[in-house]
Design brief:
By secondary structure, the protein is mainly beta. The chain contains one helix and 28 strands.
Length: 306
Amino acid sequence: MDLQCLNTIDCQQGAVRAVRFNVDGSYCLTCGSDKKLKLWNPYRSLPLKTYGGHGNEVLDACGSCDSSQIVSCSSDKSVIIWDVSTGQPLRRFRGHAATVTCVKFNEESSVAISGSLDNTIMCWDVKSRNTSPIQTLKEAKDCITSIQVTDHEILAGSVDCSVRRYDLRNGSCHADFVGAAITSVSFSHDGQCVLVGSADSTIRLLDKNTGEMLGEYTGHRTDDMNIESAIITSDNHVLSGSVTGELFCWDLVSGAVVQKYVHTSRKVLNSLSVHPTEDTVLTASVQTIKIWGKAENVKIEEKPSQ
């Protein structure tokens, strides 16, 4: 896989705690240690909007399926739903007892799902006036570090070394123990596998249904940092950040490191986001984000706004 750095943006919001593509990959969100959230056109270094209202660092965010709303979470223990165009907070959910580390919308963006250092996952009805969670998942024995959501599943990683998959159709919870604190969970794009990044500087690929380990990826360093990993859109390469400042790229099948892309040498590359349809990746390290891809992909992106 051959990626080039297509753009670098100094986000000017302190340390970027997370970077996220929106639903179609045309925009991105950055979460800042300065308590602010920013919306960008990353292909043109264009800041579109700043969202201020959290009382502490913003740690994660997710755009809705129609890009009209954003959900964000913070170490101020709150989850906020924002109106994208006005920049105003629409709802503020305060049910968690500690820092909220991760947040996602469900597929229809009718429910926001958040994970916290209080060991729980809470589900919030975005459409109603109810400010209490409609469901609280309490199976984890330690902090929730990462969640992913599909049309019928919630995937959650915890410091208790287990990855849990909740099936919302029948209420079941399936747990797999991986033996190290989990920092990142994600699905493969075909939905058959689960990628689990953990604090022992190892990423494991598991069969979603059986829990069987299909692959292991090493060489990067996580130390005690929350380092994100993901599978590229075409499902043939595994990506991860590293405390060494590189974006590591492994062959999914062989497990060999095929490429290392330097974001900022010796500065933690903590967050990444894979484009929903193309082999394009956003990375975050300290105060900057970079967009990586094949040069021809970006020309497609820019046509509508010319």
